[in-house]
Amino acid sequence: MPQKIIFATQRYQYLKDRILSISVPSWENGVIEIRDFPDGEHYHRIRSNVSNKEVVLIGGTIDDKETLELFDIAHGCIQNGALALSIVIPFFGYSTMERAVKYGEIVKAKTRALLFSSLPGTASGNKVIMIDLHVDGITYYFESGIRPVHLYGKTFVKEAALELAKGKPFVLASTDAGRAKWVESLANDLHVPAAFVFKRRLSGEETAITAISADVQDKQVIIYDDMIRTGGSLLHAAAAYLQAGASEIAVITTHGIFAGNGFNKIKDSGLITKIICTDTHPAALTIQDDMLVVKSVDKLILDYFDTLQYPK
Amino acid sequence: MPQKIIFATQRYQYLKDRILSISVPSWENGVIEIRDFPDGEHYHRIRSNVSNKEVVLIGGTIDDKETLELFDIAHGCIQNGALALSIVIPFFGYSTMERAVKYGEIVKAKTRALLFSSLPGTASGNKVIMIDLHVDGITYYFESGIRPVHLYGKTFVKEAALELAKGKPFVLASTDAGRAKWVESLANDLHVPAAFVFKRRLSGEETAITAISADVQDKQVIIYDDMIRTGGSLLHAAAAYLQAGASEIAVITTHGIFAGNGFNKIKDSGLITKIICTDTHPAALTIQDDMLVVKSVDKLILDYFDTLQYPK
Amino acid sequence: MPQKIIFATQRYQYLKDRILSISVPSWENGVIEIRDFPDGEHYHRIRSNVSNKEVVLIGGTIDDKETLELFDIAHGCIQNGALALSIVIPFFGYSTMERAVKYGEIVKAKTRALLFSSLPGTASGNKVIMIDLHVDGITYYFESGIRPVHLYGKTFVKEAALELAKGKPFVLASTDAGRAKWVESLANDLHVPAAFVFKRRLSGEETAITAISADVQDKQVIIYDDMIRTGGSLLHAAAAYLQAGASEIAVITTHGIFAGNGFNKIKDSGLITKIICTDTHPAALTIQDDMLVVKSVDKLILDYFDTLQYPK
Amino acid sequence: MPQKIIFATQRYQYLKDRILSISVPSWENGVIEIRDFPDGEHYHRIRSNVSNKEVVLIGGTIDDKETLELFDIAHGCIQNGALALSIVIPFFGYSTMERAVKYGEIVKAKTRALLFSSLPGTASGNKVIMIDLHVDGITYYFESGIRPVHLYGKTFVKEAALELAKGKPFVLASTDAGRAKWVESLANDLHVPAAFVFKRRLSGEETAITAISADVQDKQVIIYDDMIRTGGSLLHAAAAYLQAGASEIAVITTHGIFAGNGFNKIKDSGLITKIICTDTHPAALTIQDDMLVVKSVDKLILDYFDTLQYPK
Amino acid sequence: MPQKIIFATQRYQYLKDRILSISVPSWENGVIEIRDFPDGEHYHRIRSNVSNKEVVLIGGTIDDKETLELFDIAHGCIQNGALALSIVIPFFGYSTMERAVKYGEIVKAKTRALLFSSLPGTASGNKVIMIDLHVDGITYYFESGIRPVHLYGKTFVKEAALELAKGKPFVLASTDAGRAKWVESLANDLHVPAAFVFKRRLSGEETAITAISADVQDKQVIIYDDMIRTGGSLLHAAAAYLQAGASEIAVITTHGIFAGNGFNKIKDSGLITKIICTDTHPAALTIQDDMLVVKSVDKLILDYFDTLQYPK
Amino acid sequence: MPQKIIFATQRYQYLKDRILSISVPSWENGVIEIRDFPDGEHYHRIRSNVSNKEVVLIGGTIDDKETLELFDIAHGCIQNGALALSIVIPFFGYSTMERAVKYGEIVKAKTRALLFSSLPGTASGNKVIMIDLHVDGITYYFESGIRPVHLYGKTFVKEAALELAKGKPFVLASTDAGRAKWVESLANDLHVPAAFVFKRRLSGEETAITAISADVQDKQVIIYDDMIRTGGSLLHAAAAYLQAGASEIAVITTHGIFAGNGFNKIKDSGLITKIICTDTHPAALTIQDDMLVVKSVDKLILDYFDTLQYPK
User: Fold this and answer.
1) Which helix (H) or strand (E) holds B191?
2) Of these four, A62, B192, C206, F200, which has the most CB atoms within 10 Å of its CB?
3) Please, are residues E249 and E269 in contact by the beta-carbon 8 Å criterion?
4) B64 found inside a domain
5) Mean pLDDT in chain A?
6) Are residues C22 and C133 in the same domain?
7) Across the interface, do E81 and D145 touch by the CB < 8 Å criterion?
8) Residues 6 or more apart from C240 whose CB is under 8 A from it?
9) DSSP H stretches of helix in chain A
């Protein structure tokens, strides 16, 4: 059994630390030296010996700098003799640009998959491990030289739902028609009803959202969405469910990004009582507010390396 | 402008003939000699000169024989000097096995994409052109050496809906939560309401389907689904909408497969008044029944080569 | 030494069972779940853990369904983490279409080699292991990412020849000029004379076959051919040797396919007294007749994994 | 002769505009729609028809955002049917990290080359065109599927030197031993003497630079370097040449980056009288100062497409 | 129709000159500058403009120097923008090492195929064109990025046979069992009988060759073999046919190599009256002797580019 | 820890023997059977079992025969199941043709890198290990499927310099401007001054070399160059340093090729007192003269496999 060694990009050090605090002493803490230059370039040097070790590298494609840093460190580990390379991408940025709807649109989910597919192989192969992708199919966007893995945070969602429900009945609801299937599946796992919305296009950019489930009346509604970016869709859906009679709205999301002052907009709306998200995106950790609970995916990642890759 | 020449696998000759009858005289009719042997092998020989021509090759991955025939003819065209190769796959079989839900499941949509991606390139490149895929992302399952194109049959669906509605108001409905997004989009294009279903798992394999839209009462419901395989989901959804008060159910589907005596089961159920499908699968053409109207995708394909690949 | 696990396609289960019965308990029995659907699609799920194991997968390219099943299972094993993959193809179908003689002929031996070459690599690499190929060169038709291996059934042929000769002198004979070299080599190994035939083209499709060896007079002739497909060439050669004075004709072949009622045609001809073949093709096992003896290649395959891959 | 169409990343629009102003009306102005989102993602859509056109795409790898934008737009042009793709990278950022000196250093020049090499091919092939690379060999760092081109700005340097010299004799000088070869070659072209420096390491990080040419006494020294990043090496060399008796120091550089307030540091030093650079990096254009003259590489790029790619 | 330009390696200039003398003025004469250095290195520079031209490059893999020169010039043409590249290899050296018979043998025919397969592609693709290969399958040893073509010198053999026969009946004969198939086919084309030999292994290296055709008595025997290397097999076969009563032996061969003083050994044996070969190997041209007639393959090559690549 | 086995091409057996004499008994001596044929072909057979072993293969690209032998043996080791392959190329021939200066020049350093990059991968990957490359960047000319390693002979140079200096002060000098950087670095390591030359082009091919360092007067000058090919540049530089007042010239070089009677020319010039080189090129070993000391790189290579590939 070869030694595992873990690295992370600059903004994902927190997740590396959490995993090391659980996995210690079996995993080695990988050291990288990084310097950023005034001209926009960066210097990276791997200071740990990676030769013949299984490298686990954590980083999200959350912006251009992190994306290229992840690519560069991965390449460095390969060139210096890593036996195996598992790139853990807790939040796969660009996953909402997953297909071209109009001529000429550039499908970032594909170009990012292509990027990581271009890495030379390690002896035991390269893997990309992603969590709660916006679209399942992205798993198969990678070229055949790399093995993609999709981890589902179902356990997190179920535990969060039970925590929010506090024993009372609730309805699991989606923010748009695209997530209907997933919410249906989760609702069935939780043995609760599901609620969807229908987004009617009024004219041009203007839309009206209607909750099209009859049974939210006087019930707590727990909305699940894979990610909250600016919170716009979430607030529209929440308003629709309240209008349909819901007594209270709580929210579960895997990826809490809250871009562009998103969290405050949600809080200020007064529509939502509580949000539970994970730490797949570093932004979630920067918010200190009672309304938000952040749970770590550390164990989900660690479990994958221990047991999840084997059949059940 | 190089000469276009069109070939088809054995079971898709009808579509080649239709396209030639429209495109004549500009496209050349490609001739292949095919012999099937008692030991399960096949002999293929391209009899037309393909050198420096743009080859359009039509065939669906509807079963193993057609799949390999498509692969073999494609390879033959490449080896004999085709300038460009466009493989038109009107129905991309295996598109419902588009992701692994359980450990060890083999994702056929990926392995089929890999198959066609392994073809050597032509001078002007290889394309795969598909119609109304079950899942959009399949477009991006192909390796980067081949250019995938996804044609949408929106015009067909709209025209079929108007034909079925005969001027009366109707609701556009889906057969399951997974298609909710697409039906929402089509309903908005048609300026009609949308209806969804919620499939509640009762125990193990048993499920109950509920229409969760309030406004089908006394209205015609037109169900759209990308494909009808055996018709099972369709009949469950139809029953749910009728139970919710719909006055009548008509159906539009792109791919009419009707496997395992599927058409008769639908007809015998008495739940549905009319079905409109396309000829993307040869099975649809074998059914002669007033209840079924089959429209050809010939023009959709031809339009792609004429104008659809350019921006609007 | 990693654990070996063996899988087979549906029609090659018998060979997997034979190998397991010999190799037990060291090799693990790989379990796959397969379902065939009425629309021509298939569902495959690998139920055994293949992660970090050496997978041996058996299946012949005997028809389109088996070919794609072999490809799909191979892909599944790779995606689920197999350490190494050895695809054993006891009978490489299409091996007689091994080169284009006329413009436009599609070389199936090449397209099938390309198919298996497109599989992503495993950590310890992919191999294809074939037995008594119709043409040696096919070994080198595969792309460089896969390692092909050619096993020769020389021991089988020699033992079969001695069994048929029952201690009496005999001549080893070929069915056509293309196998002359191989028969020459086997005859030298057995220290017996060799006999060839010359096929003279009379007109168009008509040919006359002449034995062009003087020494078959009153001797037993044992014909060796790599495969019997429909038996046509075999019967023509047998008649030529009898006409040249042979006292009796027996036959050895590696691949007994007997397509299109081939076995009965041979038996009914009365020209041949005995046939010995192997079980590389499942068809041979379906024939129950005293005239046919089927020997298994199980040990040949197992020997390869034990010792044959090392130098002597 | 196919139509040429030109695109640029956001920060290189100025160079596209210059080239269009010269090449008009023969080249088409490519239109891209770009939106930057608060979460760090970007939306790109190609609005011009690129199908069967020769695409020229301009952008430097000057920071992470521009690098990925260049990669994404290139991919979009390929996917939408560009006949040929020439990526012009006027300043190849990271070119100073062109080899690993210590264990574990990540060679950015290689990983950037790998990035662009992973783009799928166009019918007529992909090219990368670079100008005055820091190290010649970088041309060959690209994988074999892409054709790299290195343009030399020799004409620019010669004209700038004559402009600075104003007819008086001068010495061409280098800033470090690594550029000695290049300066030697340019000096010979200009028929002037060359001067080098020797950098002696005193202790740890401390170094002393000595001009080791006897003939700068009372002469104008024109220093040439491929790039000025922060200006540190330049100022040390200038001081050394002045100490050796030079009457005046002027500077020519291809890439004027002037990072981290570099230009002001140079100006404030008072060591240098004049700098001439090109517009390969957008930073040079932001400086408005009599001491700096910026010449465009527009004609050098255009000449390549007209004549430079052919033999002389 | 793009301009064709032809190059050759140093030892194949004669064949380039012959082709140019026929094809003039339509093909351009490609100029290369070559210098050989005392340390074993070589300098090559393409002096003609190859950009957007169809390059035809002639050279045989007759020794290590020519092989690498062919590879290097091919690469140079690609890098300098050739539109298409056809590498004509009149004699594919190493074609007799076309498979491993014993463990550890290195299959040169495969490694040479791999070598040329590693060349980057041109816009219209790379081809390798070979003549009368020792083994047909070698055509398919190339990786899928290159298109191999096999030209048959059947017309040459037929004309040579008629020239040698001078109107008298003759038998077409082979030198070993491996060529039996080919000789059978040629004999049928010429409407003459065929004769084979059987090589009996006596002990270890010692073999005895017997003609096993009854009908050579008092007839002229024309032996055909694809190549004469040292002439050993040829002389053994000739002796066997003479012993079987042949009145006279003449020889046709495509590739006349005559290595190690081979021609004189044949001549001195007195067994053979005349040899006709082609100029696929430069060695044949160095022999000036009435016994040898050398015919050029210039027209065969030119015909390929004119018409042979199209179907008949 | 897998078994290491070492092979060498014919002309590098001496280096294999030296390494085995140090590494014994842990490394296995690999046996190859090689036969050269009169027609220019070669037969290679690997006689040792390489399956699942780490193969170290030594050979320089010193001429065409050695280059292809290295390629062929490497391929044979891969095909026969080597676990890992490290190709040690002590002298990378063609390294001076490392970039195209004029249109049409073929960059041999790139085509040779491409050659070795085309080898199929082994389970643990392929490496190329080179020593004191003429240009650092060559390390990155290889395609991404192979891992290049550059070993520096700094220790050898330092020890040789101390041995030559015999405790007296000396100046480290370069033979041309291109090596200035390297000599500067070595001089700093040795705490001695550095001297450079400036090569002034007089007219056409004629050049005059001037030492441009003031401090060689009455001092011993030790010239370092990476290779001595014919010795021309070396002698010009030596003359320049003597003219500048140097008391004595000694020389250190990594690669002693001495092509075209180079050693005698140097000796006869009388300019140089002593040369120390390594045994990276077999030519150095053929010279028996007191003026030349040859040190082996055996330990440098062995150290790499023991410790150099790990971080310090």
Assistant:
1) none
2) A62
3) no
4) yes
5) 92
6) yes
7) no
8) C197, C209, C210, C211
9) 13-23, 64-79, 108-117, 154-165, 180-190, 232-243, 262-269, 298-303
Contact between D177 and D196 under an 8 Å Cβ cutoff? The reply is yes
Q: Looking at the structure, do residues E260 and E173 belong to the same domain, yes or no?
A: yes
Cβ atoms of F156 and F278 closer than 8 Å: yes
What pLDDT, in 10s, does the model give residues C253-281? Answer: 999 999 989 999 999 999 999 999 999 99
Q: Which runs of consecutive H residues, i.e. helices, occur in chain C?
A: 13-23, 64-79, 108-117, 154-165, 180-190, 232-243, 262-269, 298-303
Q: Please report whether residue F311 resides in a domain.
A: no
Question: Which has the closest alpha carbon to D181: D211, D226, D248, D235?
Answer: D226
Interchain contact, F309 vs A122, CB within 8 Å: no
Nearest to B273 by CA among B303, B247, B312, B300: B247
C130 and C56 fall within a common domain: yes
Amino acid B312: pLDDT: 60
Q: In order along chain E (312 residues), what is the average pLDDT of each group of 10 residues?
A: 93 97 88 92 96 96 97 96 96 90 93 96 94 93 92 95 94 88 90 87 75 79 95 93 94 96 96 98 96 97 83 60
Same domain, E158 and E282: yes
A31 inside 8 A of chain F by CB: no
Q: Do chains E and A touch (3 or more CB pairs under 8 A)?
A: no
F311 vs A79: CB contact, 8 Å cut-off? no
Interval F24-60: pLDDT, tens: 678 999 999 999 988 889 999 999 999 999 999 999 9
Cα–Cα distance, B49 to B34 (Å, whole number) = 16
> CA–CA separation, C90 vs E100, rounded Å?
19
Amino acid at D262: G
Domain match, E26 and E95 both:
yes
Interface partners of B (3+ CB pairs, < 8 Å)? A, C, D, E
Using the beta-carbon criterion (under 8 Å), do E199 and C184 form an inter-chain contact? yes
Q: Residues F165, F145: one domain? A: no
pLDDT value of position F214: 54
Position A199 pLDDT exceeds 80:
yes
Strand spans (E) along F24-103:
27-29, 32-36, 42-46, 54-58, 84-89
Instruction: Report the residue count for chain C.
Output: 312
Residue D312, in any domain of the structure: no
State the smallest CA–CA distance between residue A150 and chain F in angstroms: 26
Question: Model ipTM?
Answer: 0.94
Contact (CB<8Å) A46/F311: yes
**Domain enclosing residue F90, as ranges:** 4-152+299-306
> pLDDT tens-digit profile of A170-182?
999 999 888 888 8
Mark yes or no for CB contact D123/E123 under 8 Å. yes
Is some CB atom of chain F closer than 8 A to the CB atom of A139?
Answer: no
Residue F10's Cβ-count burial label (10 Å; 0-12, 13-18, 19+) is middle
Query: For residue D273, is it within any domain?
Result: yes
The residue type at F303:
D
Global pTM value: 0.94
Same domain flag for F173 and F242: yes
pLDDT digits (tens, 9 = 90+) for F218-257: 999 999 999 999 999 999 999 999 998 999 999 999 999 9
**Contact, C57 vs C88, CB < 8 A?**
yes
Cβ(B249)–Cβ(B273) under 8 Å? yes
State yes or no: chains E and C have 3 or more CB pairs below 8 A: yes
**Would you say D70 and D32 are in contact if contact means Cβ atoms under 8 Å apart?**
no
Q: How far D45 CA lies from chain F's nearest CA (Å)?
A: 31
When divided into structural domains, chain C yields a total of: 2
Q: Give F125's contacts in chain A (Cβ within 8 Å).
A: 121-123
CATH number at residue A274: 3.40.50.2020
What does the pLDDT look like over A31-90, one tens digit per residue? 999 999 888 899 999 999 999 999 999 999 999 999 999 999 999 999 999 999 999 999
Shared-domain flag, residues E136 and E28:
yes
